[in-house]
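Researcher: We're teaching a course module on how sequence relates to structure. For the next exercise, students receive a sequence and then see the predicted structure as tokens, so they can try to spot secondary structure elements on their own. Here is the exercise chain.
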Amino acid sequence: MESDRLILVEENGDLRAFVGRSREGLREFVGRYRPLAASPQLLILRRQAGNPPEGHTGRILMAGEILYQNTVLEVVNLIAASRWTGSLHVYATDVHRILGLEKGFLRFANSDDPGDRLNRVLFRLGALSPAQSEEVERGPRADKRFGEGLIRTGMMDEKQLFGYLKRQMEEIFFSAVLGRDGCYVFTAEDDEPSQASVTGYIALQQLLFDGAERLDRYREFEKLIADEDLCPVVRPGVEVTSVDPRTRRVLAICDGSRSVREIARETWLGRFDTMAVVYELLRHDQVLLEHPRRSVREVAQLLVTPFDEALRAIAASVERTGNPERTRRELERWVETSPYREQLQGVLTPTLTLDVERVATNLGALSVRDARDLVEQALHELVSFALFAASLSLPLDEERNLSKRVQERLG
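Model: And here is the predicted structure for the students to work with:
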């Protein structure tokens, strides 16, 4: 099978996550692991060799895909209601968060997202400036924990630090709850607390309530901000000196070159607070949203990706059970006589994949305003004909399965 995310469960129960694993990349694991769970976007394997170390009770109790924004919240609610103890691993495209849960409490929280680091959480809470953060990081013994540096410089005492570390746990929890794609794995009786900078007991009931409230507000933000990859641009004549410091920080880089997502990283405000600021700016007509300014090559790559994946699926099916040479010849003849010859000239490779550079060249040569839409329509027609041509030499069951896979890739 093909999977975007691969989770390996080692003999001691540790999890290893891989993103973007292709079918070819799974060959190194053949014979060493057995599948525990699988879906179109997630594959979980457990190592077969040997037995878990004595006394280790870690095991996967739940796993699945994050299909909508309520997924993580509902999973945590179920774990809390069942009073289970373990670690909930939440995987986004390039972020891994771990929530340590124990009988209705959040015991610890870890994250490898820079936005969840203590210095950035303290900035969002108004407890630390970027200049103070830099002072701590450049100070003596900078290799130690950031919290120790705060105490060493006298910026806060142990009691204050402990309180803020618990706030960091809460912020990591809320960041995990806001995720709308990826996957999750809950391992019961895990040993993760030893990796946490602080452990505490924060009641999940209140966190779940606050998390649901944030989700409601986030949905409100999305009424005006449909995509975090859109770029805010300050409208002419907007006065920036009279706004609050956070808004001024965002406005300073709303020049159309950075998306909402990128502004969240650069300002240290995080996704939620940045969305809140941009939402208010839109409500007061102080900014407008534009699509990212991309090169023709970047546009071509984004355009080609789903169609290329669909053609690869067709080529793989034809290679196994059909006539690849016949399919290729039929496609070439179709391109030569189709109304889309100008848009598709030279884009098809001998292996039935798409040449991104040639698509970019053809796209750049079109002088019409809706050039992107025209090329996209041409690629749709190309894949549709490729599917038809392949079906002529495929068994009925394979044809149906292939059609389903192609539709999944084209959304």
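Model: If you want an answer key for the exercise: Residues 296-321 form the longest helix (26 residues). The chain has 15 helices and twelve strands.
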